[in-house]
Amino acid sequence: MGPMLTVARRELAGYFATPVAYVFIVIFLVLSGALTFTLGGFFNRGQADLQPFFNFVPWLFLFLVPALTMRLWAEERRLGTIELLLTLPLTQWQAVWGKFLAAWAFCAVALALTFPLWVTINALGNPDNGVVLAGYLGCLMVAGAYLAVGAALSAATKNQVIAFVLAVAACFLFAAAGSPIVTDFLSTRVPALAELARAVSVTERFNSFARGVVAARDVVFFASFIGFWLFLNAVVLDHRKAD
């Protein structure tokens, strides 16, 4: 755990040593607030809850999270420091998990800074704060899923722009897989694929959290999803190291 946490602290400090962290947080807070109160119809709904906010978070993360992950390994490979990192007295898995946990902690900070929304709904009414907490947990799970995908794809290239584009495309597939447009289209042609699309959809699982339902199957899904992509991350690093 020690070396892994050391990597995590190093990476987290690296975010705040550059404008990337502050730009990410400002954009996330501005967009989440604007979308919640305008397109989300926060005041027109007549309900004191954060459902409008939760509706937009997976789609905001779709673009913002790859902006974090594109440099995780691509920058290390471009600068040639990845070899140095992997020769330190730590295992490859510790490096992979350390970088992932740093990015995940950063997303948690960004989510925590949306607390004025929570304060607002409690000032306007009597919301079910248990549902709100479940929704935030779901947001963190979605962030972790996107981060794991982005980290694996970042390890596959030296180019940060390519890593960003690949991560956005891959995350979009998992976000849109459970949408009615996709599932209805597949249901009329290949029903088995429609069920598969629902099964791997990140937003489909997130919707349960947003409704206040923390089901074991959804937690297991996110844990397995993250674990699978981090495993691919390690496999890609092994392959690149062999090259």
UniProtKB/TrEMBL annotation:
This is ABC transporter permease. Pfam families: ABC2_membrane_3 (PF12698). It is a multi-pass membrane protein. Its main location: membrane. It is found in: Cell membrane. The chain crosses the membrane at residues 12-36, 56-74, 95-119, 131-149, 161-182, 219-237. Keywords: Cell membrane, Membrane, Transmembrane, Transmembrane helix. Residues 53-183 form the ABC-2 type transporter transmembrane domain.
